[in-house]
């Protein structure tokens, strides 16, 4: 923030530090909904979250057990490939580090899979080390179904298509397997700071 803008009083909106906005993005105050299909509505008593694939034994938590895992509340900026960014969004969820505790794997990639069939692929390094959560609260309230409730993956360092809504599990893989949008022309990694929007970027 420049010292000059601090001198103004009664500005209708707070200043946005331009260093927080990735190239080609603009900020929004609303929360657009972008879904490739209808919003699935899985009853919580049929919901579970599973870690499978390159593991000795798959692990699965029913909803009540998932809520009992230690959670974190984080405030992060999110960036959509369609060019909107939303700053200071607050989420509560379980970090992927917590979900992978005690799991021994040779995997270098994960595929997140969802109710409704959506998938997205990520390097394991992009979802560990405090970089990703399975979030079930937004702004203190249960996550709206339109935004991925009961739970969605949240990977704020990458474009929001990596933040799989209605996520039900992670499959750990040795090799990288392009997901729904990655197979359709979106960039395989999707780093907003490098403007990795499409294959050709
Ligand atoms: N399951 C699922 N997750 C998804 C999508 C989807 O169609 N299905 N769309 C992705 C895309 S392209 C974006 S931009 C964000 C949008 O999240 P929002 O609707 O909460 O803004 O969700 C991502 N996660
Ligand atoms: Mo998107």
Description:
- This protein has 201 residues and is mainly beta.
- The chain has one domain (48-194): Oxidoreductase, molybdopterin-binding domain (Sulfite Oxidase, Chain A, domain 2), CATH 3.90.420.10.
- The protein has helices spanning 3-6, 63-68, 96-100, and strands at residues 26-27, 48-53, 59-62, 72-79, 84-95, 109-114, 119-123, 133-138, 141-142, 152-154, 167-173.
- The strands form two sheets. Strands 1, 4, 5, 8, 9 and 10 form a six-stranded mixed β-sheet that branches. A five-stranded mixed β-sheet has the order 3-2-11-6-7.
- The chain starts with a helix and ends in a 28-residue tail after the last strand.
- The protein contains three helices and eleven strands.
- 7% of the residues lie in helices and 30% in strands.
- The site of the ligand Nc1nc2c(c(=O)[nH]1)N[C@H]1C(S)=C(S)[C@@H](COP(=O)(O)O)O[C@H]1N2 has 17 residues, from loops.
- Molybdenum atom is lined by residues 34, 80-82, 160-161.
Short descriptors:
single chain, 201 residues, mainly beta, Sulfite Oxidase, Chain A, domain 2, 6-stranded mixed β-sheet, 5-stranded mixed β-sheet, 11 strands, 7% helix, globular, disordered N terminus, binds the ligand Nc1nc2c(c(=O)[nH]1)N[C@H]1C(S)=C(S)[C@@H](COP(=O)(O)O)O[C@H]1N2, binds molybdenum atom
């Amino acid at each position: 923030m420049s010292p000059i803008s601090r001198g103004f009083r009664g500005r209708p909106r707070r200043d946005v530090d331009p260093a927080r906005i990735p190239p080609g993005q603009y900020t929004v105050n609303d929360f657009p909904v972008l879904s490739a299909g209808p919003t699935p509505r899985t009853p919580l008593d049929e919901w579970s979250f599973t870690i499978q694939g390159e593991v000795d034994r798959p692990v699965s938590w029913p909803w009540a057990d998932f809520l009992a895992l230690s959670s974190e509340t984080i405030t992060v900026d999110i960036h959509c490939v369609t060019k909107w960014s939303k700053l200071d969004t607050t989420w509560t969820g379980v970090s992927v580090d917590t979900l992978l505790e005690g799991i021994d794997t040779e995997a270098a990639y994960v595929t997140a899979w969802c109710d409704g069939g959506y998938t997205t692929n990520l390097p394991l390094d992009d979802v560990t080390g405090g970089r990703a959560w399975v979030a079930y609260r937004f702004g203190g309230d249960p996550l709206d179904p339109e935004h991925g409730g009961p739970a969605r993956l949240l990977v704020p360092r990458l474009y929001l298509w990596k933040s799989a809504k209605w996520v039900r599990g992670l499959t750990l893989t040795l090799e990288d397997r392009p997901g729904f949008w990655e197979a359709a022309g979106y960039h395989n990694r999707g780093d907003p700071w490098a403007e990795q929007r499409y294959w050709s970027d």
